[in-house]
Amino acid sequence: MCTLARLLTVLAFILYWTSALAGNDALPCVAGQGYLPVCGLEPAEDLELTPDGRYLLMSVSPGLAGQHQSRLRLFNVASQMAEDLPLSIEAQSGWGDADCAAPEGAIGAHGIHLSTRAGGRQQLLVVNHVGREAVEFIELKPAGDSWVGIWRGCVQQSGAGRFNDVAAIPQGGFVATVMFESTSMAPPLPLDQLLDGRDTGYLMRWVPGQTLRKVVGSEAPFPNGVQVSNDGRYAWFAAWSAMEIRQFDLHQQRLLTRVPVGYLVDNLSRSAEGHLLGAGIIDAKVFSHCFSNHLEHCPSGFKVSVLNTDTLEQQVLFEGGVKVLAGASVAVEVGDEVYVGAYTGDRLLRLVGGRLDKR
């Protein structure tokens, strides 16, 4: 009987996963221990909190079914509603490469990074794959009780590298991750080669007056989210398929630290205490299946963690099952809560239960 019971358990497990991965039904929109879902939204692959703490900037992903328009949106934390970020075009010298032309059409959004420029103006860097491969420079300005964006300039990629994320550096430029090289972002992509842990990409750096350049020695397995130290010397970035967060010395051009995190850590953000927040899915095989079959509501388990970059101590803040959030990709601290975004699906997730420094 014990043997039969074990066999039935295994069969039930197989049937559950076969059913979950074969379908494309929306995940249940119900609260659970330590989390509240905010449903009915387009997938926010990356998030940035506005300076007033009242809005989240969302970079909308096309999703695994390709049914969404990649663009920038604003999520009102109080009302829990989202709307498109109003965006106008007005080039200004000193924002990006002088030879980079204004976009001819709509701007897409992948990785984003908000920072304060010298002089106090708010700069939003946006990875754009729509119409061209570029980092767009957008000024974020208050408008009444909300925000608007003004396109000011850009830096275009002339090579085959496909950007993932970007972070500003003090010199007025940026560091960007290249996840892989390809002639386009469209499928089919060689998933086996992209997910098996081999080096597929690298860092690139741009400073005013210079060309966009590959950072020597920065090769890594699927470079993803990136943050830069306040002095501009160190880049902390996610090596997605290696399940690591890495520290790279931009001055000496060498890898300093590799921190195993135990999941496919995607984007990175800074907590109020300066620690690195990460989020990502657990199983690359599940991603491969969902990507190949265009499953928008991919049943992906995920983790959210925080890394102290001084002590290299890592703590898992939350671990979610397959029916909570599809394609977790970013975690951002908002007051006493953490919001988790995803590259596919229909929701944000609010993690509740106390500030990070009390966990």
Mind explaining what this structure looks like?
The chain has helices at 2-22, 191-195, 284-292, and strands at 35-39, 44-49, 55-60, 72-76, 81-84, 87-89, 112-116, 122-128, 134-143, 146-156, 161-168, 174-181, 202-206, 213-214, 223-228, 234-239, 244-249, 254-260, 264-270, 276-281, 302-307, 314-320, 328-334, 337-342, 347-351. The chain is globular and about 50 Å long. It is built from three helices and 25 strands. Strands 6-10-9-8-7 form a five-stranded mixed beta sheet, with no helix packed on it. Strands 1-25-24-23 form a four-stranded antiparallel beta sheet, with no helix packed on it. The longest helix has 21 residues, at 2-22. Residues 4-22 have low confidence and may be disordered. The protein has a single domain, classed as Neuraminidase (6 Propeller), CATH 2.120.10.30. With 359 residues, the protein is mainly beta. Helix content is 10%, strand content 43%.
